[in-house]
Design a protein that fits this description.
With 305 residues, this protein is an all-alpha fold. 50% of the residues lie in helices and 1% in strands. It has a two-stranded antiparallel ribbon with strand order 1-2.
Length: 305
Amino acid sequence: MSTASPVPVDPEVTHDTGDPVGEVLVDWYAGAARDLPWREPGTDAWAVLVSEVMLQQTPVARVEPVWRAWLARWPAPADLAAATPAEVIRAWGKLGYPRRALRLREAAVAVTERHGGVVPAEVDELEALPGIGTYTARAVACFGYGRRQPVVDTNVRRVVARLVHGRAEAAPARTSDLVDIAALAPADDARAVRFSVAVMELGALVCVAGNPRCGACPVRDRCRWRLAGYPAHDGPPRRVQRFAGTDRQVRGRLLDVLRAAHEPVQPDALVAAWDDALQRSRCLDSLLVDGLVVQTDDGRFSLPD
């Protein structure tokens, strides 16, 4: 099925009320936003940074209790920098992708050593921190410091693909995504910051991947995908990530054993975690390479000190 032809972003795209789309979304967000702790007034840039790292590929419901516990234990970068890798991995718990925990600790060390313990506000300085990419750097500058920044995650790219370009799905990430979303932001800096989170919320709650709730969309009358008759996605099919039986699951099982142990464990203690010896060995090797597990001189295994 054919799709609508791409069109240039028009910053004056308006809703049927005559208001620019960005302004409409900010007003919509005022009544539709979820009550999330990292969005509360007064949340500092460190707390925002922790939330953004934890939220990568992880549902909000799983992140919130860990985020609260993490900030209670390590309220500033210097506190986390002083923690051992083992403490950090244990505190990360079941959030998944535990390398993020080590990278966040490395970022805390860098903030403490290079920036006097204060998370920097400039995007280039944020991007220079370990494990911090374009999205996270802009999110911290925007949500942690109130800087006018285009913040583009998967949800935002999908909103722009449909609203602006008339496509069912977003193309692979590209630099023009930042230009697209910046063109829709309100002129007022404070409202532009609210817009950055509002468009993310629209993609998370309404303009979702599977079954978008177009009837609840505040800008549905200006959505070029809707106006084109919802043309189907004509690119490669979206990959559905499975978890059961994957190396990710096995790595998690092995880490569970080591988190619960108070001293290094014998190799036999890991056998019960997964019965496929070849896959278990492969995953243990990958954990050693990633620095999430260490082996003692006598052949036992533990979390890193």
